[in-house]
Amino acid sequence: ILSSIADGEMKKIRLNQIEIPHLLLMAILEQVLPGHGYISIKDTHQLETVTHLPVLEKDREQLQQVMDTYPVRLSRHTIRQMLVSKDVAYQYLPFTEELDSGGHTNTWIGQFHDGLLEQMYQNRVIFLLNMTCPVYCRFCFRKHKDSRNEQNPTVKDVEKAVQHVKDSLSVKEIVVTGGDPFMNRANMAATIDGLMQVDHVQTLRLATRSISYYPDLFLAKEGAYLKYLKQKSFELQQHGKRMEVATHFIHPDEVSPESLDIITDLVNNGIAVYVQTPFLSDCNDKGPELVKLFSLLRGAGAELHYIYIPCSPIHGNSIYWSSLSKGIGIANYLRAHLSDRIIPRICTATPIGKMDWYTSGWAVEKVEGNDNFIWIRTPYTPDYFKSFAPLANTLSNIRVNDEGTIDIQYMAQIGDEALLHGPRPKRVVSKKIFASTDDIKTLQYRLTHERQTAPSIVDTGLEKLFRLHETRVEMDARASEKEIDYIRSDDRITDVIIASSTDTTASLFYIKQLIKSLKDIPHVNAVRLVSKKFNTAPESYTRAVINTLGELNNLCVVNPLRLEIETWFTLGSEITDTHAKLVRRLNNKGITVYGNTALFGGVNDSDVQIHSLAYRMRKAGIEFHHLYVAGLALQQKWNIDHPVDSYDVVDIATKVRREGSGREIPRYMISTPLGEVDYGLTSSFVNENGQVKIKLDCFDLSYFKELNENFVLPDGITTENGSPVVPIQGLIKSNLFPVS
Ligand code: SF4
Q1: Which residues face 475 on adjacent strands?
Q2: Probe ligand 1: pick from 133, 152, 206, 317, max atoms within 8 Å of CB?
Q3: Rounded distance, CA 356 to CA 423, Å?
Q4: I want to staple 657 with a disulfide (CB 3.0 to 4.6 A). Which of 273, 320, 360, 404 is the partner?
Q5: In this structure, are strands 117-121 and 112-114 parallel, antiparallel, or unpaired?
Q6: Could you tell me which of 130, 314, 143 has the C-alpha nearest to residue 208?
Q7: In what order do the strands lie in the sheet with 173-178?
Q8: Is 114 helix (H, G, I), strand (E, B) or coil?
Q9: Which residues of 580-591 are buried (b: 16+ CB within 10 A; e: fewer)?
Q10: Residue of 25, 117, 29 lying closest to 76 (CA atoms)
Q11: CB 309 within 8 A of CB 419
């Protein structure tokens, strides 16, 4: 192993022609190249000595210039990883192209900032507790030495920021970040303890990349920091609050046994860990590496939250940039080949806030006279900022469009110009027929008692097993060995959904048997139990049921089998404190609860209702997974007479993004006989004589043939450019605008 490393090629290691699996290699390197801590590297000679990697003489002078401008810091952990992975080295080793002068000097630092506190959104603020990190990412927006050398805030500053939160009743969530806030234990303690006493605060989101690049921070001293966090999380729960940890992973080679261990430990103790992934050109921009990364992290218990496109447009970062169309296009690959539970939202962090592609925002047009900028439609309005940051009114790079939201100039290349969609036309008023209370009750009842998801996309030859996706099957709790054999024989299947006519709690006996068999199938890493009774009869989750579920959940580094509960809600008013308590108990066993919702015309198809539902789900700790816009069994019946207007879908996404937490945004989905697609992002409207049809951009015929070679397109489905085109009922489109 050492001789393979010594040639400095930073590639995988083979023994007897067999590549050593990455996680095993990481564990071996921990032993053969031990060492903890991090090192600030001042010059090129030190860089060579510390990393064992040569610097080319022709580059030495320029590289020194880079290091003088953008400081270099590496952990022993990242050095080990770099020795066998170019994709890790690419993120942390300095390179001469950093001298390229393209890009901004800085990115935006919050609409409102006062000391360590920044505010970009009405309902949440950022605390910057510490200005340095144990490792410096080369693509960091704070990469310049001036940012790295900023003075750290003091505990007094923290107390002032806590007071500001106390005085701001609209602030529900605090994102605690830096630099790495965990490097400043005194500030972290003052923050957690201070905010614990503020009634209206609901969630603390602690951001750290150390889980991936410096796990020693959490594991040193017998895991003292982890123990501290678990204790504080427990105390926060006693105060009706929640702790979450946010982290970054970019490439599967960054994943180590230590990082998976930390994630599992946190999640098993009721602390959600969510991952954000910057999209880096030539590193994680093809698709398969993201599928591998997200699958590994999921088994450990993480949630995949965002992919940021593109990487920060600041000086020295240009090699990491890719066009927006490339980033948007990655959604097709992920939707086709990744479990729906771990497809992150694809978003862009504009200077006035984030937007999600094809629901709460899109590319409008190029900025006239400046090829480096495009106008992006955002969900924000001037009014939104009035209460906390009137500054936004004076910005010169924004304009208010005809629908009243703000377009902002954003530095990026669009790539495919067909994605410049222009402004949204005015709404064509359609008459909405509102449902009566009885109708709503009937719909809620039927939703609880009837299977909603689409049929099998290919014939499985099995009555009790549906193939819903390349990675996913749904089977009945009374399934037999035949169904298990089907799953065993196809290593693309990662997710098994188990449904039962008597619901989860009454079928536990059978579910236990199935899970026992699934545990022996290494490619299955998640079991999802459909439980409508979670909504309607939460009391059926007795202590004994919760304990049994906890025993079935197996988050771990090797062969994980994660357990999740899938439930359904239609209106925010259905969610009560009982649900919140139940979620907390399940979370404390490492079990996630996620909710799906069907959009019904005249029932819940308004921005106010879905915003309220999303808020309540978040408050109760339920992850809002899918908001089905069209295509579910019950929607096909109800929405024919009470259609959902595609215009409302964008209005809903706009409000939820603008006024909710970024953590409560669902994926906007359309269910079809050939699988589920994202509204706008992985599907597109096809206009055929006024009938609404959807092209499934993420699938083609070969996709289905690979699942069953005898596959033929169902009646009524055609193809366009190789992708299926499916008629959709109950969704109306009142204009030709591609997004809404
Ligand atoms: S962890 Fe974040 S703040 Fe720290 S160097 Fe990396 S990108 Fe920058």
Answers
A1: 465, 498
A2: 133
A3: 16
A4: 360
A5: antiparallel
A6: 130
A7: 112-114, 117-121, 124-130, 173-178, 203-207, 242-248, 272-278, 303-308, 345-350, 353-356
A8: strand
A9: bebbbbbbbbbb
A10: 29
A11: no
Tokens of 336: 């086709």
Residues in the chain: 740
- Residue 157: what residue type? D
588 C-alpha to center of ligand 1: Å? Answer: 30
As given in the structure block, the two tokens for residue 541 are: 């989750």
- Residues 80-83: contacts with CB under 8 Å, at least 24 apart: 80/26, 80/29, 80/30, 80/33, 81/26, 81/29, 81/253, 81/254, 81/256, 82/10, 82/51, 82/53, 83/5, 83/10, 83/29, 83/33, 83/51, 83/52, 83/53
Per-residue pLDDT, 111:
61
Number of Cα atoms under 13 Å in the Cβ half of residue 70: 26
Ligand 1 closest atom vs CA 133: 4
pLDDT at residue 312, rounded to an integer:
77
Half-sphere exposure of 284 (CA within 13 A, CB side): 29
E strands, 167-290, are 173-178, 203-207, 242-248, 272-278
Which residue minimizes the CA distance to atom 7 of ligand 1? 140
Task: Give the per-residue pLDDT at 16.
Answer: 85
Identify the three-state secondary structure at position 210. helix
What single-letter amino acid sits at 40? Answer: S
CA distance 658 to 341: 23
What's the chain's Rg over C-alpha atoms?
25
- Residue from 98, 180, 210 to probe ligand 1 pocket by mutation (most atoms less than 8 Å from CB): 180
**Protein residue with its CA nearest to atom 8 in ligand 1:** 140
> What span, in angstroms and rounded, lies between the C-alpha atoms of 177 and 180?
6
Burial class of residue 4 (count of CB atoms within 10 Å of its CB; 0-12, 13-18, 19+): middle
With beta carbons less than 8 A apart as the criterion, state whether 679 and 668 touch.
Answer: yes
Q: Which residues of 83-95 are buried (b: 16+ CB within 10 A; e: fewer)?
A: bbbbbbbbbbbbe
**Using a 6 Å CB cutoff, which residues line ligand 1?**
133, 136-137, 140, 142, 179, 209
Give, using CA atoms, the residue closest to atom 6 of ligand 1: 137
**Torsion of the alpha carbons at 153, 209, 564 and 557, rounded to the nearest 10:** -140
Using CA atoms, how far apart are residues 242 and 206, in angstroms rounded to an integer? 11
| 672/534 Cα distance (integer angstroms) | 26
First to last CA, the chain: 56
Taking each helix axis from N to C end, the angle separating 607-620 and 577-587, rounded to the nearest 10 degrees, works out to 50
3-class SS of residue 627? strand
Residue of 32, 35, 22 whose CA lies nearest to 2? 32
Buried b (16+ CB within 10 A) or exposed e, 302-316: bbbbbbbbbbbbbbb
Task: Look up the ipTM and state it.
Answer: 0.99
Q: What separation in angstroms does the CA of 471 have from each of 290, 342, 494, 527?
A: 15, 11, 5, 12
**Beta strands 373-377 and 242-248, pairing class:** unpaired
47 within 8 A of 120, measured Cβ to Cβ: no
- Residues of the chain falling short of pLDDT 70: 104-111, 390-394
Backbone angles phi, psi at 24, to 5 degrees: -65, -45
Give me the residue spans of the domains in the chain.
Answer: 2-99, 437-732
Q: Which atom of ligand 1 is nearest to the CA of 179?
A: 3
What integer pLDDT is reported at residue 106 of this predicted model?
59
Q: Which residues pair with 121 in a beta bridge?
A: 124
Q: What integer pLDDT is reported at residue 142 of this predicted model?
A: 86
To test ligand 1's pocket by mutation, which of 107, 137, 143, 248 has the most ligand atoms within 8 angstroms of CB? Answer: 137
Distance of alpha carbon 153 from alpha carbon 35, whole angstroms: 30
Homologous superfamily, domain 437-732: Aldolase class I (3.20.20.70)
> Distance between CA atoms of 184 and 80, rounded to whole angstroms?
25
Determine phi and psi for 70, rounding to 5 degrees: -120, 100
Residue with tokens 């979370």: 587
